[in-house]
Write a structure and sequence with these properties.
Length: 446
C-alpha cells in the first residue's frame, strides 16, 4: 500500500531542495516546521465515491475532465475556472492556502512553484510514488517541480516562444519576417511609416520579459550553498531592457497591456501586425481575432546573432496537488492521467494549452489545430524547433510571482515618468532581495 505523507512541505524543504536542484545535493536550513492541517489526508476505500476540486484557466480543460469523470465514476473532478490575468489566479490560490481551504489540485506555472513551497502549499508527491512517472515527461520540464528529493507537481505543457505575424500586411508592405532583433527593429520602422505598429511593449507582462531575458542568456536565479543568488539586473537583461526602451522612446511600439480589450481590438483591425508570443498563442489569436483567419503565420523568435538558435519558454504549466488535499493519491492519479493519456492530450491540444510535456501520445502535426487560421502553415514545427533549443540551464527561484508584479509596477512608472528601463532592473533587483530576506531565505546579489 502506498504511504501518504502526514505533513506538508516546510520552508526547510525549499531552502534545501531548491539549492539541490542547482547544486545536486541537499542542504540543511532553518525555517517553519509542523503540521497545521485540520485533518490528515485519507486513502479512498474500494468502492467509495469522492469529489476532487481543480482550479485551472486552461482553455477547454472541461473536456478532458469530463472524459475522466465518465471513465472514473468513483472519483469525480470538479473544475473551477480562475482568471490568469496579471496573476489573479495565484493571488486567489495563496489566499485559499492562508485561509486553510485550497482546492485539491491547481494549475500552477513552472516559475511560481517555489513560491507555493514557501507557503507550505503543495504536497510532496514523492512518497506517493510519483517518481515512477518521470520518464513519461521531458526531463527539463519534470525537473521544474523537483526540489531536493521532493516532487511537487506533474508537468503539463511548455510554452516555447516564437513570433506571430500578419503575413498579408508584411507582404503588402514588403517586409520579411525578421530573423534578428535588428531586423525586427527595421520592420517596426517600416510598419510605423505605413500607419501600423509591429506590436506593444506590455509593461505589466513580466512573464514575457523574463522569456526575452532568458533568450538573451540571463540567469536571474542561482544558488551557492544554501544561499540564493539573484541577478535580475545582469548584463543580458540590461541588453533586453535597452532594446525595448529604444523602441518605446522612438515610438516604434505601443505600450498598452497585451491580452486585454484594446490589444485584441488592435489585432482585429491590423493596427498591430505581430506579437512575440508562445506556442499556446495560436488559440488566443483564433479566439480573439477570428476575422483575421488565414492571414497569420508563425516564425522563429528573432535572434541576437544571425543564424542563432537561442530560444526560451514563456509560461509552462503543471498540475499540482495542494497540501490539504483530502485524497492525495487519487489527485496524483488524475494529474498523471490528465497529462499523459492520449485522449486527454488530444482534448487539451484542441483547447490550445501549449506544447505537451509528455513524450508520447501525440505527434507535432496534431498541434496544428488551427492550420487554416495560419494560412495552411504547419506552424507547430516552428515551436517544436524552439522547444528543442530552449536553454534548460535557466532556473526559477522563490517569489517569481511577486517579482513579476514588481516589474510591472516599475515598468509602468518608468513609462509615466520617463525614467530608464535600467533603473527598473536596479529597483526590482533590490526589491527582490528584500522580499526573499523577508521570507527568511539567505540571499545575495549576483
Amino acid at each position: 500500500m502506498t504511504s501518504i505523507p502526514s505533513t506538508p512541505p516546510t520552508r526547510r524543504t525549499v531552502l534545501g531542495g531548491a539549492a539541490a536542484l542547482a547544486a545536486g545535493f541537499a542542504l540543511a536550513g532553518c525555517g517553519d516546521s509542523g503540521d497545521d492541517r485540520d485533518a490528515a489526508p485519507r486513502e479512498r476505500k474500494k468502492g467509495q465515491k469522492i469529489d476532487l476540486t481543480f482550479w485551472s484557466w486552461v482553455p477547454g480543460i472541461d473536456k478532458p475532465v469530463d472524459l475522466w469523470n465518465r471513465k472514473n465514476p468513483e472519483v469525480q473532478v470538479k473544475v473551477e475556472k480562475v482568471s490568469a490575468v496579471n496573476g489573479e489566479q495565484y493571488a486567489k490560490m495563496h489566499a485559499a492556502i492562508k485561509a486553510g481551504n485550497p482546492p485539491d489540485l491547481g494549475q500552477i506555472e513552472f516559475p511560481v512553484v517555489p513560491s507555493f513551497l514557501l507557503d507550505d502549499g503543495l504536497l510532496d508527491l514523492a512518497p506517493l510514488g510519483a517518481a515512477r512517472h518521470k520518464d513519461k515527461f521531458f526531463g527539463w520540464q519534470w525537473q521544474q517541480s523537483v526540489f531536493g528529493k521532493g516532487i511537487y507537481a506533474i508537468p503539463q505543457a511548455s510554452g516555447p516562444m516564437g513570433l506571430f505575424l500578419r503575413q498579408d500586411l508584411f507582404d503588402r508592405w514588403g517586409v520579411k519576417a525578421p530573423g534578428t532583433w535588428d531586423e525586427y527593429e527595421a520592420a517596426a520602422r517600416t510598419l510605423r511609416k505605413k500607419g501600423a505598429w509591429i506590436e506593444t511593449f506590455a509593461p505589466t507582462n513580466g512573464n514575457r520579459f523574463a522569456g526575452l531575458a532568458w533568450q538573451a542568456g540571463a540567469k536571474w536565479y542561482a544558488t551557492h550553498g544554501d544561499t540564493w543568488i539573484v541577478s535580475v539586473d545582469d548584463e543580458p537583461t540590461r541588453k533586453v531592457a535597452d532594446y525595448w526602451e529604444s523602441l518605446v522612446r522612438r515610438k516604434l511600439v505601443k505600450t498598452i497591456p497585451d491580452r486585454q480589450n484594446a490589444w485584441y481590438k488592435d489585432l482585429q483591425t491590423g493596427a498591430i501586425a505581430a506579437w512575440v508570443g508562445a506556442s499556446w498563442g495560436d488559440a488566443l489569436l483564433v479566439g480573439n481575432a477570428p476575422g483575421t483567419k488565414g492571414k497569420w503565420r508563425a516564425a522563429p523568435l528573432p535572434q541576437w546573432k544571425a543564424g542563432g538558435q537561442a530560444f526560451a519558454n514563456w509560461g509552462g504549466s503543471t498540475t499540482a496537488v495542494f497540501a490539504k488535499a483530502g485524497y492525495p493519491k487519487d489527485a496524483l492519479d488524475f494529474a498523471v492521467w490528465l497529462n499523459t493519456d492520449p485522449e486527454s492530450i488530444a482534448l487539451l491540444i484542441e483547447g490550445g494549452y501549449g506544447f505537451p510535456s509528455a513524450k508520447k501520445g501525440y505527434a507535432t502535426t496534431d498541434l496544428d489545430v488551427d492550420k487554416a487560421f495560419f494560412g495552411g502553415q504547419a506552424y507547430s514545427t516552428v515551436f517544436a524547433n524552439a522547444g528543442a533549443h530552449v536553454d534548460t540551464s535557466w532556473q526559477w527561484g522563490p517569489g517569481v510571482d511577486t517579482l513579476y508584479q514588481r516589474l510591472g509596477d516599475a515598468f509602468t512608472d518608468a513609462l509615466a515618468d520617463g525614467s530608464s528601463f535600467r533603473s527598473v532592473l536596479t529597483k526590482v533587483q533590490g526589491q527582490t532581495l528584500s522580499d526573499l530576506k523577508g521570507k527568511g531565505l539567505k540571499v545575495e546579489s549576483g
